[in-house]
Request: fold
Amino acid sequence: MKKKVFAMLLCGLPLMINAQAAFDVLQMSQTELRGTSRFQSMAGAFGALGGDLSTLTQNPAGIGVYRNSDLGITMSLDFNSTTAGTKPNQTTTNETKFNVNNVGYVGVIRLDSQTVPNLNFGFTYNRLNSFNRHYTGGVGLIPTSMSNFIAKRFVNENPYGPYSVSDLWWDDDPEHPFNPYFDYNLDPYTGKYRGYAPWAAVTIFDMPTNGGGYVGIMNADENDRVTGLFQDGTEGDAYYEVDERGHVDEYNIAFGGNIANKVYFGLDFGIVDLDYRSFQGYEEDLDNAYIMADDEDLFTSPIIHNNTYVNWGLYNYLHSEGTGVNFKLGLIWKPVQQLRIGAAVHTPTYYDMRDTYYVCASMDAYQSGNHLYSADKGSNDGYDYSTTYTIKTPWHFLGSVAGVIGTKGVLSLDYEYVANETMRIGDDRNNDDPEITNDVKNYFKPSHIIRVGGEYRVNPNWSLRAGYSIKTSQVENAVNDYECEVSTVGSNPTYQYDNTVHNITCGVGYRYKSFYADLAYVHKIRNSVYNAFSPIDDKYEYIPNVSAEVKDNNNRASLTLGIRF
Reply:
């Protein structure tokens, strides 16, 4: 039996090597300010200081500063508040999460040598990132429909020529259900197709007067068969929901020491566990939408748009999980007692990844208040599919300087260069995909992280701390200004990214003999952008997409308990 692909949003067309693309590897590469409370309260400006369990994930030379063994644990409560959209379609979602940010041990081996006074080793667990975020919102009077974006890609971006409706039919084999992620290379009409994702086509309609061209359901015009971007009375609203869950955890094994109490060195081997789950839903309500009069015959049904109404939605579910390894190398130089200079380099984290995913779509069409038809479909007849691939996160380079003010104070400044253009995605044999490599170079630029922190010792038992950090945008201006098309793969045309991330921090520390307790407060401001799909290249200009600002105002309180012996 043949199945129509009209209204199933899944048409086994384009697919790349794997189920991820440039913005997905960016998402998996993110870290945030976490670690011990002392580390957080000084905004992570520890690259030239050391002597803290968190430095193993930043500048491993910090392990060489230790003179006594250290055992500690850090717990936190995260109060997350996410606001999406603009008024009157603005919504705010609040959540509270408990996390264990850091557990670690550093052992000191004292040597009877003035040249190498001690060699140290350490084991730590660090939560590098928590993906937990949920937001919803709406966009009124959208400039175009996701359906127009899909229609344009089907016609213009297909190297085998325009698809006709007959190309979107599939012979249904009960023993081998159709799967849009993998079955593209079995398409008897088109052969293999590499390029853009199989978003396909709850929104794609045959134009019988023009031999099977496609238009979107929002602004179709018979004189523009390619993009269908003429305003012709169709208007509508869009609604979106994003729910993200998961974490990035790192387990560190570090070794280091010092030379004559002047040069401190460290080497760290990290094992990283990544778990990311997301639901992304997108819906449109369109009045005077271009639809077929019925869905029984795609070749002969007339296109109508007077007094019509369409509600349709695309819903993507993704579970990404992987294990990676990385290396870090660091040095700290103390030319005089009052000055420390630090440097470190982090290799990419080399991940082996596995994705499990499911996509479904639904549509209801009306005219003059009368229901014409409904359609819905899920990938692989409702079953999940999975794929494996590899990821390489960016290289990181760090430089730090710190000053010791008498016996009371410390000021520290860190700079970190994140080479986002060095990210890569490959197949499960670690062969980089050249198309995604080009996308990474076109979409992303290096980001810069600046951290500054200070500590003042009130007396031998109590210390006060404060800090600030900023991370700059990771995307090129053309992406942020909507002046280029953005490619995604799989079945999800949605992408998102951060513009700037600020952390304002403070804290207090208490010491009594070998016991210590630290409290930290972190206020995080993250400005992000949600894009339902890419801007549309109409040859003369880029048609705006459906996008929204997303702002996080998160607060974290953390407690570290530990002993030094």
Summary: Residues 131 and 246 are 5 Å apart (CA to CA).
